[in-house]
Amino acid sequence: RLSCIRNNIWLASCGVLSSGLAVLSSFGLMLFCGVPFVVTVANAPFLILGVGVDDMFIMIASWEQSSRKKEKSNVKSLLAETYGEAALSVTITTLTDVLAFFIGTWTAFPSVRSFCLYTGTAFVFCYVYTMTFFGAVLVLNHRREQGNRHWLTCMLVDVGKDQAENSCLYNACCIGSCSRQPSQLEGEHPMSIFFKKYYGPFVTNKWIKLLMVLLYGAYLGGSIYGCTQIREGIDLRNLANDDSYIVPYYDDDEKYFSTYGPRVMVVITESVDYWNKSVRLGIENCAQNLE
Predict the structure, then answer these.
(1) Which residue from 146, 115, 96, 120 is spatially nearest to 40, judged by alpha carbons?
(2) How far apart, in whole angstroms, are the C-alpha atoms of residue 168 and residue 165?
(3) Over its length of 291 residues, how does the chain's per-residue pLDDT go in tens digits?
(4) Is the separation of the CB atoms in 78 and 60 below 8 Å?
(5) Where does the chain hold its CATH 1.20.1640 domain(s)?
(6) In whole angstroms, how far apart are CA 266 and each of 16, 279, 287?
(7) So what's the pLDDT on residue 132?
(8) 273 Cβ contact list (under 8 Å, min separation 6)
(9) Which phi and psi angles does 110 have, rounded to 5°?
């Protein structure tokens, strides 16, 4: 927002900080418990950031709707109504994500199991911090707005002073407007107006609803068909970078050696006296019998 009072940059930054705290808490707890840290776990913060920012937007939108409906209400009732509207959506999102990743811990692959443990635990911490830490930040930001304070310096915005003798930087940070115009509180956000006045009536039209039902039916049919075409297996080339030496290696292996079938390896789990000639002959005979 352009308003020096309604600007929520610090609020958004605290939402990102909340996700970062969830990642640190999850990683710290898992490392303390001795869960192995693998390279794939390094991708977890991006997933947590996406869900955390989504929860942050839901909380902010619910808070602003509650504050517009109850301008004279106290902070407790505003926060209670915000949680009443936003907490259910945030809780369902978190439950589905946590369930999905904790189910992934049943896999036989240790790297995937570690990734799912780290990420699932991070989702739990993300939910906790959103419901506690970010809620407190919402209240603090509301008190700053009610006190008519600047979004950056938290100084009282005063347009009654003589601004002519002050610098532009002082007016922007301490008074609120470099152009020496009073900073007014903004009304409803333009995005909310768009969805309420234009998008909402458009999608509730009976022909548009019929079209959406048909499109969803086509999407559902395509999804069911796609599920029937899924085959179990993994191409190791898809796990490497495009410019990695692994890709041409597997290409050549498939081109020149695919006709010989899979490799068979023999593992000897006991200590063997390789210096003994009879033992070596026994190993050679074992390999020949396998061939």
Answers:
(1) 115
(2) 10
(3) 667 777 888 889 999 999 999 999 999 999 999 999 888 898 899 999 999 999 999 999 898 888 877 666 688 888 899 999 899 999 999 999 999 999 999 988 888 899 999 999 999 999 999 999 999 999 999 888 888 787 777 777 765 555 555 666 665 565 555 544 444 445 677 888 888 889 999 999 999 999 999 999 999 999 999 999 988 777 777 777 778 888 899 899 889 988 887 777 878 888 889 899 999 999 899 888 988
(4) no
(5) 8-187
(6) 51, 15, 8
(7) 94
(8) 279
(9) -60, -40
How many whole angstroms separate alpha carbon 198 and alpha carbon 286? 77
Whole-angstrom Cα distance, residue 234 to residue 109?
13
3-state secondary structure of 178: coil
> Please, which residues bridge with residue 149 across strands?
156
Element (H, E) at 160: none
C-alpha 113/C-alpha 36 separation (Å) is: 10
Contacts of 97 (CB under 8 A, 6+ apart): 51, 120, 123
**CB 185, CB 6: distance < 8 Å:** yes
At residue 202, the 3 state secondary structure works out as helix
Tell me the three state secondary structure of residue 149: strand
Quick check: 4 and 146 in contact, CB under 8 A?
no
180 by Cβ neighbours in 10 Å (0-12 / 13-18 / 19+) ranks as middle
| Tokens at 211, concatenated | 């079209």
- The residues facing 156 across adjacent strands are 149
Going by CATH, does the domain composed of 8-187 fall within 1.10.10? no
HSE-CB for 29 with a 13 A CA cutoff: 15
- Which residues, other chains included, contact 186 with Cβ-Cβ below 8 Å and sequence gap of 6+? 1, 2, 3, 6
